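Below is one record:
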Amino acid sequence: MPSTTMNTEEVRAVWTSEKGSMAKQTAENRWPKIIQGTIDGICEAAAAGDVEEQKRVESIAIRIALKHLKQGIEQNKPLTPLQDDGKLDIQQWNKQLAEIGECSWANCPWLFGECYMYRSIQSILNSSKHWQNYDVFKRQKDSTFVKSRAAVEELARRYMQIVADNPLAQKEGKEEAKKLLFIEMTEIALWGNATDLSLLANLTLEDLQSLQGRDAIRKSQRNIVDNDIEDVWAYLQRTTGQASRQIDIILDNAGFELFTDVLYAAYLLDAGVATSVRLHVKEFPWFVSDVTPPDIESLFYHLDSSEYFPRHEYLEQLLPRLHEYFRSGAITTTSDPFWTTAFSFHEMLSRAPALFEELQKSYLVISKGDLNYRKLTRDGMWPHTTTYEEALGPLGRQSGVKILALRTNKSDVCVGIQTQAKVDALDEEAPDSAWIRNGKYAVISFNEGK
């Protein structure tokens, strides 16, 4: 185990050859299934009655290339330079691969290998004529979202009743209730990839102002193994007088989680926490379910449909508010090529200095999901008691970046656990590192960059 005082460059990254690791399981089992899913999706799309013959014929070559990619993973072939697909980033990908040296699918840095796989899929599509803008994961994203119907309708009801119809944040003398509402809304964003609302406190307006509300919140936080929510609230209270309070949210998944993120953005504006919110999306399909620009439009298309969401009473009240936030520019979307590279965020200052400067200026940067957390911490094999600030490296101390990570644990890295005794207790409660892998535990980690 590396020391918590080690330089971040010296901390070993997780490799797919790591025995017993999530990285190894993912490379051996999940990656081939993902590729097969893309092959099946292309096949189904090409078989549609309205597809032009040239596009249908071209799909055959795409499926052959994807099958070759899948076989390479299954047979543990070496990672080879990406073929030129006309995009400017290919040279950098191949330079990074050369710097890693000889490696294969089952023996490579997990973060690089996984990003390389998704860039390989996109390279195959980029090299085509008719499929360049095709999202191979869209059908999966849409079908998953529709299955979350009950959760979407319930959250719309709760939002309109608690936040919109009762502007608690604007009432004097209700500081504790405001704080509890902030905590619950943040937890909704945290657990946004789980449509089981039993994870949440489900508070009424009256609950938020009572002992029952505090108890419910405390119970809901049991599985948050690093919880800096008090520090976040203190920072927000201390800086509430700032004229410009732009919050940046680095999004993770489309579908239900995107709905919770947009709802969270609306809450931050309704509550006066933020003066504007900027949502960061990926430029092309990434890690199956990550948000791309068309996913924003798709979200509202589905939400506006009474066919997909028949209990439309509260959605009909909520949607005009959300539409207006986007129309007015209070909520905007942006993308940056850096988000779809294999670089950790430790390399942001040198690889994307303009993006780094933008985040420095942000009132608060909220990083969603497991992949972003892995990139924040350089996907390193840190001792779990390493502080979040140290694991952030260049984005930590004196960086000027106020960064909040909302992440359910689904990989091999997790820092910020206060004591080794707590680590031992978690290992006993959820053996075989389940507490950092099964998605039932989470972190709310905050660093002010001072």
